[in-house]
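The instructor's notes for this session suggest beginning with a concrete chain rather than abstract definitions. Hand out the sequence below and ask the class to guess, before any prediction is shown, which regions might be ordered.
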Amino acid sequence: MEACASSHHWGREIAKSGNRIRLIAPAYVKPFVKRQKNDMADAEAICEAAQRPTMRFVAMKTEEQQGAAIVFRARDLLVRQRTQIINAMRGHLAEFGSIVAKGPCHIAKLLAKIADVPAIAQPILQLLAD
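After discussion, reveal the predicted structure:
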């Protein structure tokens, strides 16, 4: 089976019925796709790749491993979004001449400067701040 977002789940389910599951990284399957990407071409490429004697397979993840990966990816997403919002606020405030240093340690200064912008922009900046 080609390793994808749900392949670990389905691999565990199929393994319960006694089948041996081997996952192949998509990068190793792609060279075997002969024509346009569709289910039939993918299945043929997976079969051909799986028959190679030197093929390397992906270890199937447990539910605990998948849960830990979700925690890591979700935290990474939230940190990136926080950085985007801080940078957006810095940019919006700079349009009105309020310059604040980079970094999350200067959020208090950003929040204090919201009152210095026109009233029409304050609710949106407060929404970003919240």
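Then share the key points. The longest helix spans residues 63-94. The radius of gyration is 25 Å.
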